[in-house]
Amino acid sequence: MRAPFIVIEGLDRSGKTTQTSLLHTRLEAEGIQAKLMKFPDRTTVIGQMIDSYLRSDSELDDHVIHLLFSANRWELASYITQLLEAGTPIICDRYAFSGIAFSASKGIPSSTPSPKLPYEWCRSPDIGLPAPDLVLFLDIAPERAKLRGGYGEERYEKEELQARVRGIFQRLGSEMQNETQRPVRPNWVTVDAGRERKVVANEVWSLVEPLVINRIDDPVAKLWSDKL
How far apart are CA 143 and CA 159, in angstroms? Predict the structure, then answer.
């Protein structure tokens, strides 16, 4: 038996950081020592390069920044597996799905469906990463997210881009839900993030609590292992 790996995804300003923090706090209050993680992890050498890019303090080719995001996750892949096998639940703010959604959404003008970075290319660097046991996608319309405080402070916080990102997330979710053979794919649940914070937090807890209490009897799976 091992601990679960929970990932919370969503558009910018969808409440991911708030909900991961609330979930972590609730686990601690229940006497469950969990690890809170966030990607990109801006504390590493690679993470610092990503941070400079996101703040628009530096420029990088789209292919390069995508690979840096993936490398940032691979930096901690072994650590994630070790924690889970040692019995420590992980609550993660963003993971590989964000990397795919944001990169595959770049350079798609309304007049053409051709992406600058193809979906399959964007996914390939993350194949083999530790797979979450549950992905909670906090769904909110970009026009509503735009009204929340701090919107527009980072490079990707533009309503048109966020709308395309939402579409890629929905594609990822559909693919995850259509895959029935575990442990190839993690479970994907869409949560309405447009509601009051406490209501969202209660739903998140109801989905996470059984996994934390009952634990997982499968080994840590690998993302898209059928592509290996």
Answer: 7
Strands (E), the chain: 5-10, 35-38, 90-93, 134-139, 187-192
Q: What is the pLDDT along the chain (228 residues), one digit of tens a residue?
A: 999 999 999 988 888 999 999 999 999 999 999 999 999 999 999 999 999 998 888 999 999 999 999 999 999 999 999 999 999 999 999 999 999 999 998 866 554 455 689 999 999 999 999 999 999 999 988 777 666 555 455 555 567 788 889 999 999 999 887 765 454 456 899 999 999 999 999 999 999 999 999 999 999 999 998 888
Domains recognised in the chain with CATH numbers: 5-227 (3.40.50.300)
User: How far apart, in Å, are the Cα atoms of 200 and each of 52, 187, 219?
Assistant: 32, 18, 30
